[in-house]
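Q: Give me a protein?
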Amino acid sequence: METKTTRLPVDLIEAAEAEGREEQRSTAKQLEHWARFGMFYDRQTSSARRRIQRAIAGELPLSDLDGDERVVANAAINAAISTAANEVSFADRLAARGVTTVVMDEDGRMVRRHPDGSTTVL
């Protein structure tokens, strides 16, 4: 099978490593499993899927879904939240407002990050 390299969020890779160990799959195979499951799910056009989509969009209360539908809706909501959280840098937003923050640098050290972009190791 032909492959391509892509970047994925660290939290997703770590979750795939942990789940893969439980399921006797490599990290790559676990990610492929999740991706294919998501792809097949997205291709479905059932009434249950439309109900789930309506609930995710806030057009239908989650309490109107049955147990399995609610699990799928919550998983989709959690995935959307996780994706959004990984794309937002609150330190960058605060720096733009002139606020100094404390973050972890690439070496795992706590540093004070100043609005001008400079850092001081704590």
